[in-house]
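[#protein-structures] MJ: dropping GDP-mannose 4,6-dehydratase here for a structure pass
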Amino acid sequence: MSARPVALVTGVTGQDGVHLARLLVAEGCRVIGTHRPGSPAAAAMRPYLREVELVGLDLCDEEGFASLVRDVRPAEVYNLAAMSSVGQSWQEPEAAMALNGAAPTAMLRALEAVPQARFLQAASAEQSGEAAASPYARGKRLGHEAVVAARDSGRFAVAAVLHIHESPLRRPTFVVRKITRAAAAISLGRQQRLTLGSLGIRRDWGAAADHVRAMRLMLASDTPADHEVATGVLTSLSTVVELAFAAAGISDPWTLVDFDEALERPVDAAVLAGDPAPLRSALGWEPRHSLAETVAAMVAVDRERLVSGVEEAEHYLDRLRTSPAAP
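AK: finished. structure tokens for GDP-mannose 4,6-dehydratase:
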């Protein structure tokens, strides 16, 4: 029996890392996932990662990453680790540039020791256009440029340019999870109101499970190429609020929502639209989950979290398949 192919996933305890690691395990890979040393996420997310080998590794530790690569000799590397919050990047610009830009560049250098390894960088739709001014976006752009340079030199390196995507594993600091958590809490009488910044944004919101499936297809392709991962459907944040509250059984959310200008980002694009056609044409990818289904699943899981007191449980990921779409 041949050895299982090794897939190395950085940032494995994040939303995308969990979804991707589980997909890779289901496909028969040996999955090794890195996480920030000392992070409580490693223990918190263990219910979803029982078959994944976890390694504590600072993303900026180039020699540590190089040593890990030499030890495990991965066939595939997915770099999902990053500072993922645009808002946080304004507060910690140097860290954002190091994590999002310098770290993937160093990873590609380290992977010269395993030239057959395929590399995927999680890029972002926010790295261009109106949103590109943030330290988050500038770092992501540098990481993407490193991928292009590596591919030009003959490496199998690709960037998945991801639009926003959600799941029950989204951290509460992100606005959609903040909304679903509040809708669940208000429906249970555990919270009175929800406070938001501007509702004047429209985004191409997808499902994390769909987006990581696109990543997998990209690294399994015969030809390395960057692709935008999007649904092609634009939705306003106000619609997201209505979907979440409807899923929680609340028909009129606007009597329960307050607004605070202090919560708005320094620079934010009003619209970020995506085009799934090239990815569909090249690799046959299609999104399987609507935003309404995804938001309904998030509300259902947040209600269960609040009632049970259990923040993470493996069956929470089944909700996206079993929860009905919100009206």
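MJ: nice. The first helix runs from residue 15 to 26.
AK: one more thing. The longest strand covers residues 118-124.
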